[in-house]
Amino acid sequence: QVRLVESGGGVVQAGGSLRLSCAASGNIFSIVTMGWYRQAPGKQRELVAVYTTGVSTNYADSVKGRFTISRLSGWNTVYLQMNSLQPEDTGVYYCRAVAGARQYWGQGTEVTVSS
User: Fold this and answer.
1) What does DSSP say about strands 91-99 and 109-114: parallel, antiparallel, or unpaired?
2) CA 96 to chain centre
C-alpha cells in the first residue's frame, strides 16, 4: 500500500509560480514511477508531467518549458515546479504512483490562477 499526500497549491496571479510536493509513504520501495495530473473544472483529468522511467520524463505540450518535475533520490517526494502560470492552469493537481500492478492517487491540491 502506498499513500500520497500533495501540498503546495494555492491562489496565484498569472505569471506567478508555485511548487507542488507529493510525499509518498508506505511501501515506497515498490514504486516504479510517479507523476502529476490535473483536472480543470468540467474537464477530464489529464497528464501534466510524469517520470516514464527512473530518470526520463514526459510533459504535456501545454506546460513544456514552464513546469518541471523533479525528485530527490528514491520516491519519497516528487515535486512540480510551475512557472509562468496561466489561468488555464487552474485545477486540482493530483499525484499518481505506480507500484507493481496497482496505481495510487493522492487527494489533490487545488491551484487557482487569476488573470
Assistant:
1) antiparallel
2) 8
- DSSP three-state, residue 96: strand
Mean pLDDT of 73-80: 92
Query: What's the CA dihedral at 70, 14, 105, 31 to 10 degrees?
Result: -10
HSE on the CB side for 44, CA within 13 Å?
2
Predicted pLDDT of residue 100: 87
Contacts of 47 (CB under 8 A, 6+ apart): 35, 36, 37, 58, 60
Q: How confident is the model at residue 55 (pLDDT cuts 50, 70, 90)?
A: confident
Average pLDDT, the chain: 96
CA angle, 53 as apex, 61 and 60 as ends, to 5°? Answer: 10
Cell 520501495 -> residue: 29
Q: In sequence order, which residues have a C-beta less than 8 Å from that of residue 71 and are 6 or more positions away?
A: 34, 51, 77, 78, 79
- Going by C-alpha positions, the residue among 93, 88, 66, 91 that lies closest to residue 78 is 93
